[in-house]
Amino acid sequence: MAKHLIETGDFTKHEIESLFCDAHSFGDGRFYRMLQERIIITLFFENSTRTKSSFEIAAKRLGAEIVHFDVSKSSTKKGESLADTIATLDAMRADIMILRHERDGVPRMLSKQVNCSVVNAGDGRFSHPTQALLDLFTLTKHFGNVDGKKIAIVGDIKNSRVANANITLLQRFGMDVTLVAPDYFLPKTDLQTTQNIEEVIDSVDAIMSLRTQQERHEKSTNYRLDEYAKKYCLTKKLIGDRDLIILHPGPVNRNIDIDDELLLDPRCKVLEQVKNGVDIRMAVLKKLILG
Ligand code: NCD
Question: Is the pTM of this model over 0.85?
Answer without folding.
Answer: yes
